[in-house]
Amino acid sequence: MTEPYVPIPYTALPHLSDDERIARVRAFRELMEARRSCRMFADAPVAREVIEEAVLAAGTAPSGANHQPWHFAIVSSPELRHRLRLGAEEEEAAFYAGKAGQEWLEALVPLGTDADKAYLDVAPWLIVVFGQRRGGIEPGDKKQNYYVTESVGIACGFLLAALHQAGLATLTHTPSPMGFLRELCGRPADEKPLMVIVVGRPAENATIPLHATRKKPLEQIASWL
Ligand SMILES: Cc1cc2nc3c(=O)[nH]c(=O)nc-3n(C[C@H](O)[C@H](O)[C@H](O)COP(=O)(O)O)c2cc1C
Predict the structure, then answer these.
(1) 212 ligand 1 Cβ < 6 A
(2) Does any ligand 1 atom lie closer than 6 A to the CB of residue 206?
(3) What pTM was estimated for this model as a whole?
(4) What is the DSSP annotation of 182-221?
(5) CA of 148 to the centre of ligand 1 (A)
(6) In this predicted model, what pLDDT tens digit does every residue of 19-67 receive, in sequence order?
(7) 36 within ligand 1 shell (Cβ under 6 A)
(8) Whose CA is nearest to atom 19 of ligand 1?
(9) Contact 36, 202 (CB under 8 A)
């Protein structure tokens, strides 16, 4: 049965002056500026409730027709994490051996990445993100989903922001191709693995590529019409 349109009052938002808005959005920008992808994790545990809250935050994201076409397979078992590492390293070995092509490999030089994915064994949580081609709001729905990649991308942005707010380091990891993740997480054929979000505390002497701190200035990323 088609759910009817039921209008309810708009969510209460605070009444702020422009100065207050600027202060708030600047504080948020400063918070997000301090996020950096991490490739050297500590094995320190992180409570499951933190991950639950962050995933719930991701689940508040907008999505095509509100179908919420995402699934987060949350891996903490050391055995599964190790299998995920082996699967990823197999793909990455081929990728770095030349499958990626010269231009892509050159783009990765300033990041210093390679086929060794030791962090997949070390970080306490791996969130494998799937996009659902079919679904709907009710469990078991198999309706057409819309704008799956866009919707899941926004949800992952929320997830990264929430985890950063919780003082955790993350890495968006995309072993290519990612088909092995579907089998590893026991997900159905109509779900597409999109990324692995690695979560934990950074290792004590963790470093980051200087390149990652180079963000484009406003003039380069925005035009005002
Ligand atoms: C869609 C996507 C895929 C990525 N895949 C990988 C990856 O497979 N391995 C990796 O080490 N970093 C990966 N990254 C992280 C980027 O290299 C990183 O975001 C970029 O260098 C900027 O650094 P920052 O996240 O610290 O701002 C990915 C990022 C995104 C958004």
Answers:
(1) yes
(2) no
(3) 0.97
(4) HHHHT--TTEEEEEEEEEEPBPTT----GGGG----HHHH
(5) 20
(6) 999 999 999 999 999 999 999 999 999 999 999 999 999 999 999 999 9
(7) yes
(8) 37
(9) no
Query: Which of 166, 126, 174, 167 has its CA nearest to residue 149?
Result: 174
d(CA 168, CA 79): 23
Which residue, by CA, sits nearest to atom 21 of ligand 1? 212
Mutate which of 113, 173, 207 for ligand 1? The one with the most ligand atoms within 8 Å of its CB, which is 173
Burial of 76 (0-12, 13-18, 19+ CB in 10 A): middle
Q: How far is ligand 1, taken at its centre, from the CA of residue 113, in Å? A: 10
Helix (H) / strand (E) element for 27: namely helix 18-33
Helix (H, G, I), strand (E, B) or coil at 59: coil
- C-beta 37 within 6 A of ligand 1: yes
Q: How far apart are CA 217 and CA 220, in angstroms?
A: 5
Please identify which residue in the block is written with the tokens 């050391």.
78
Ligand 1 proximity of 25 Cβ (cutoff 6 Å) = no
- Is 1's pLDDT higher than 90? no
d(Cα 55, Cα 127) in Å, to the nearest integer? 9
Average pLDDT rounded to a whole number, residues 193-210: 98
Instruction: Calculate the CA 185 to chain-centre distance.
Output: 17
Q: What is the largest CA-CA distance in the chain?
A: 57
Q: Is 173 in the pocket of ligand 1 (CB under 6 A)?
A: yes
Quick one: average pLDDT of 117-145?
96
